[in-house]
Amino acid sequence: LPEDRALMVYSVAGGSPAERAGLLPGDLLVSVDGEKITAPDELARQMSRLSPERPTRLELLRAGRLMEVVTVPSWQ
Q1: Rounded to 5 degrees, what angle do the CA atoms 26, 43, 67 make?
Q2: Could you report how far apart the first and last alpha carbons of the chain are, in Å?
Q3: Distance in angstroms (rounded) separating the CA atoms of residues 58 and 71
Q4: Which of 2, 9, 17, 43 could form a disulfide with 75 if both were Cys (CB 3.0 to 4.6 A apart)?
Q5: For 56-72, what is each residue's pLDDT tens digit?
């Protein structure tokens, strides 16, 4: 996957929403709720729009496999 098509997860803080969603270091984050993520500012903008009242869908590549992870409400 070209670098400009995803963001690599370098670390995941313990107890964070990312950890609860199951993200792992090395995952390549492709989209958040269907919106492609190719730059850190896009990720920040998309994350600011999320609501703890509804699930969030993350699309990522892990070990060459495209995966979908759905967070549960109350991610904060």
Answers
A1: 45
A2: 30
A3: 8
A4: 17
A5: 889 999 998 999 888 76
Residue 45 dihedral angles phi and psi, to the nearest 5°: -65, -45
pTM: 0.79
**What does the block give as tokens for 49?**
């729009």
Q: Is 21 helix (H, G, I), strand (E, B) or coil?
A: helix
Instruction: Say how far apart CA 67 and CA 61 lie, in whole Å.
Output: 6
pLDDT tens figures, 4-27: 688 999 999 998 878 888 889 999
> Tokens 């850190």 identify what position?
40
Q: How confident is the model at residue 75 (pLDDT cuts 50, 70, 90)?
A: very low
Strands (E), the chain: 7-8, 28-32, 35-36, 57-62, 65-70
pLDDT at residue 2 above 60? no
